Amino acid sequence: MNTIRSLWRSAPMVRAALASNYTIRPLSAATTTVPIQKPVEPVPATTVELDKLYKRVELEMRGIDPAVLLSYTWFCVAAASHLGIEVTKSWALRKAEKERHTLLRCVHIYKKHRVQYEVRTYFRFIHLQRLTGSTCDTYLEYIQRNLPEGCALKVTKVECQKLPDHITPPTNE
């Protein structure tokens, strides 16, 4: 009996094998536990705030490495599909923006000896349609936290709003 107790305490695999032969009974069968329930208070209708609706959200990504930018675009599209967000367009500009700087090799003399430096910026765009405010905030926070180095993200939102009271729809007469 002592060997069974020592095996029971020591090895989880042995414990699982021996547990099928033994039955576990509760400490006291007479008492039953009832979970404590809090009363649910109704929320007043005045404090309920409606979620914003966005017709379109445009993501503009720019970076210096086209391979990293392409990989990040795939990541953004995959994250959108997992959240059930409709991606309508995803495209890139054909050519990169080039910014050239010309400098003298030597500051003092030799004006004809110059060096040119070039910085290329690549762009990618994604258009998302029909988003709620909470889904949009969750999605944007997720993709911004995973933004790789050397990339920038610009977000433009087009929000749907209620028609003002002073504007009335035309009547059919």
Number of helices: 4
What is the succession of H and E elements? HHEHEEEHE
Please outline the major beta sheet.
5 strands, antiparallel
Strand content: 25-35%
Cα-based radius of gyration, to the nearest Å: 32 Å
Distance between the termini: 96 Å
Which structural class is indicated by helix and strand composition? alpha+beta
Report helical residue fraction: 25-40%
CATH class of the domain at 53-96 and 122-160: Alpha Beta
CATH architecture of the domain at 53-96 and 122-160: 2-Layer Sandwich
Describe this structure in words.
By secondary structure, this protein is of the alpha+beta class. It has a domain at 53-96 and 122-160: ACT domain (Alpha-Beta Plaits). 28% of the residues lie in helices and 32% in strands. It is built from four helices and five strands. The chain has helices spanning 2-10, 12-19, 66-83, 133-145, and strands at residues 53-63, 86-92, 97-104, 114-132, 151-160. Strands 1, 2, 3, 4 and 5 form a five-stranded antiparallel sheet that branches. Helix 1 (2-10) packs across helix 2. The chain is elongated and about 85 Å long. It starts with a helix and ends in a 13-residue tail after the last strand. The model has no long low-confidence stretch (mean pLDDT 83).
